[in-house]
Description:
The longest helix has 11 residues, at about 50-60. The chain contains three helices and three strands; from the N terminus they run βααββα. It has a three-stranded antiparallel sheet. It is of the alpha+beta class.
Amino acid sequence: xxxTRKFYTPPxxxxxxxxxxxxxxxxxxxxxxxxTNLATSRGGKPRWRISSADVDEFLAARASQPxxxxxxxxxxxxxxxxxxx
Length: 85
């Protein structure tokens, strides 16, 4: 059974993104980046694998976006004022 998806380890992903290898681990621990633990026992050292699809979603969620346009405030016109032009 061959899988076409690519999986990264935290050090590989860190190198790919140009950050330290501890940064992907922190994203995993915070729940920001989904990963699968392939450790042989639950209490053992985690062996994280991150799918390329999860990396794509993670990067899309963190992509910069232009700020929303500022709302302009309009001056309220007085009801009892007569305008002359």
